Amino acid sequence: MTIPIPAEDPRHVPNRAVIDPSAITQNTRALGTLLEEQTALMAVVKADGYGHGMLTAARAAIEGGATWLGVAHPASALALARADLDAQILTWLYEPHTAQIVLPEVLRSGVDVAVGSPEMLQLVAAAAREADRRARVHLKIDTGMGRNGVLPWQVREMGAAIRDDDFLQLTAAWTHLTSAEDPEGPATDQQAELFDSACEALEDEVGPIPLQHIANSAATLTRPDLHRDIVRPGIALYGYPPVPADVPLRPAMTLSSRLALVKEVPEGHSVGYGRIHRTSRATTLGLVPIGYADGLHRTASDSIDVLVRTQSGDRRVPQVGRISMDQIVVDLGPETAARAGDEVVLFGDAGGEPDAPSAPTADHWARAAETIPYEVLTSVSGRVTREVRA
């Protein structure tokens, strides 16, 4: 007999990821100012909207002008379709078992499906027949990523197979850039050239391609020549440009907790597993009930600041010692007004006074953990309550 274990009541847990949909809306609008009128914006809301909530992110992006939504998995696409949103949806990642189960319903819902191999094309064709609906196919071309996608010399064969099947319709050709975050490098130009030559071969086989899309967040910001018919920004929608940009973008997630304990310790006191930190003077430590099980990166241990909000004002203080599963320690300093119950902002928009210290960002955490803000945002675990700001 299986006995269900009740989930933690979010009212009893101090950790919060506050999502600001208006930031996603504003970021979408800002990116839209870079586009020509004929170029559509596909908001990439995969990975549960990069941890922000897929439906929350989708609705906010549509309000900001997105007319397409992109998700990796067909089940996510189906959830978006059932939400009756005013946008066309694309999904691109599936394997045979789940494809047989979910693709027919996905196609009945009017979702576009990407195809990156002859086998995937067969799965989509079979699903289209079962659904009794013509599938709108985006042919993925591998121009150097080495993941999903047909190689350029396969496009004629794939195009002919789509053309000759009454249940398939070629809607788009697309590719994925490997190094758009390096605008000076040659890889993006090389990929674009491969993509264009592959599209020429595809057009020789099937005629004009209705849509082409290449640009991710970085290329949307830096390569207007690659905007084509659709751009596919992801991380930039959530406030983190992967390249330096003049476009104003605002973080949409703020991760916070509260001090559980405050105590004075002497000089030389060790902190955390492995004793990687010892206090350099007598000081006051604060215990925060959030850790790597909540999504904090252990590799950022002893290398990041947080913002503590006290009655006497906000202050950036260092996290010290090893980040644990459920808790971290911060050095509040020898003279502090901090008390148990005070708010701690791990990253995001603290919304303080203009001259007050700002909170760290996901970029700060990424640098401390030697990773990228994408991973910081999507690592915030399901046991952290999401609150959507009105």
From TrEMBL:
Family annotation (PROSITE patterns): ALANINE_RACEMASE (PS00395)
Gene Ontology CC annotations of this record: cytosol
Binding site for substrate: 147, 325
InterPro entries: Ala_racemase (IPR000821), Ala_racemase/Decarboxylase_C (IPR009006), Ala_racemase_C (IPR011079), Ala_racemase_N (IPR001608), Ala_racemase_pyridoxalP-BS (IPR020622), PLP-binding_barrel (IPR029066)
Active-site residues, record numbering mapped to chain: 46, 273
One MF term in the entry's GO annotations: pyridoxal phosphate binding
Function: Catalyzes the interconversion of L-alanine and D-alanine. May also act on other amino acids.
Family (UniProt): Belongs to the alanine racemase family.
Name of the protein described by the UniProt record: Alanine racemase
Protein species of origin: Brachybacterium paraconglomeratum
